[in-house]
What we know:
By secondary structure, the protein is α+β, with helices and mostly antiparallel strands. 31% of the residues lie in helices and 25% in strands. Strand 2 and strand 3 form a beta hairpin. The relative contact order is 0.21. It comes from Amycolatopsis keratiniphila subsp. keratiniphila.
Amino acid sequence: MGITSTRQAYEFPTGIAPPLGAVRAWLREQLGGVGRTTIADTELLTTELVTNAHEHADGVAELRVSVPSGRDVVRIEVDDRRPRLRPRRVIKDDPTSPHGRGLALVEAVSTEWGVDTGAGFKTVWAEIPAL
């Protein structure tokens, strides 16, 4: 696979919306050795987690991607600086609303996802099967 257990990090510019096209291109570059389905799923979930951090947690601090040694998954981690704000699924009454499906997608596509917190930061992570 293109990357190993070493984490590759993407740092975001401050004060502007996340450059999602550039993020997806960076992911494709990092994941050169995995299948197209894995890359597409990784792009989708990364876009969702980055967008959530931008819209709900005052922006993204850092994105990391890795293929943990000895495991057949791609792990993505998105940091923000609002550790007390926990992600939660929201059930929308309006099926035409463009919002409210991000974490449902994360749950559906990932093998596992979760939240880790530390002093002044939160990491939302997801693992995608490496096919």
